[in-house]
Design brief:
Layout (H helix, E strand, L loop, with lengths): L1 H17 L4 H17 L37
Helix pairs in contact: 1-2
């Protein structure tokens, strides 16, 4: 819903402000553009599978090697 509102404000701001010459709508366009571009985090599905009754799913997080360890540190 928020994405839809921002899309509408972006298009109206472009039409009425940037192309139409209204300073207020140009500011609305800029604000909506910035929020759409950098403000909203879009989640993406990385893995999807249905579990059977009694099934188990384990999620782990492994830290990436730092600059001192280098890229090959995880291969040892």
């Amino acid at each position: 819903m928020l994405e839809r509102l921002l899309r509408s404000l972006t298009s109206q701001g472009m039409r009425r402000g940037v192309l139409g010459g209204s300073r207020a709508w140009a500011i609305v366009w800029l604000a909506a553009f910035v929020v759409r571009r950098w403000g909203i985090r879009r989640e993406e599905v990385v893995y999807s599978e249905s579990l059977e009754p009694g099934g188990r799913l384990t999620i782990t997080h492994e830290a990436q090697p730092g600059k001192r360890e280098g890229r090959r540190a995880g291969r040892r």
